[in-house]
Amino acid sequence: MGGKSESTARTMLERFETIRPLLTEQAERFDSERKLSNEAFVALSEAGFFRLLLPTELGGCGLSPLDFMAVVEHAAALDGTIGWLVGNGGGMSRVGGYLPPSAGQAIFDEPSAFVASSTAAIGKAVPVDDGYRITGRWFFASGAPHATTFAPLCEVDDGSGRIVLAFLPREAVKLEDNWHVSGMRGTGSWDFEASDVFLPAEYVCDFQPDPSHAGIVYRLPGISAFTWTVATVPLGIAKGAIDALVAASSGHRRQGMTVPVAEREVAQSETGRCLAQYRAAGAYMRSAMTTLCAAVECEDANLVAARIDYRLACSHAAEVAVGIVLRVNDLIGARALAESQPFERRERDVRAAAKHVAMSTEQFVIAGNYALGGDISNASF
Question: Does the global pTM surpass 0.90?
Answer without folding.
Answer: yes
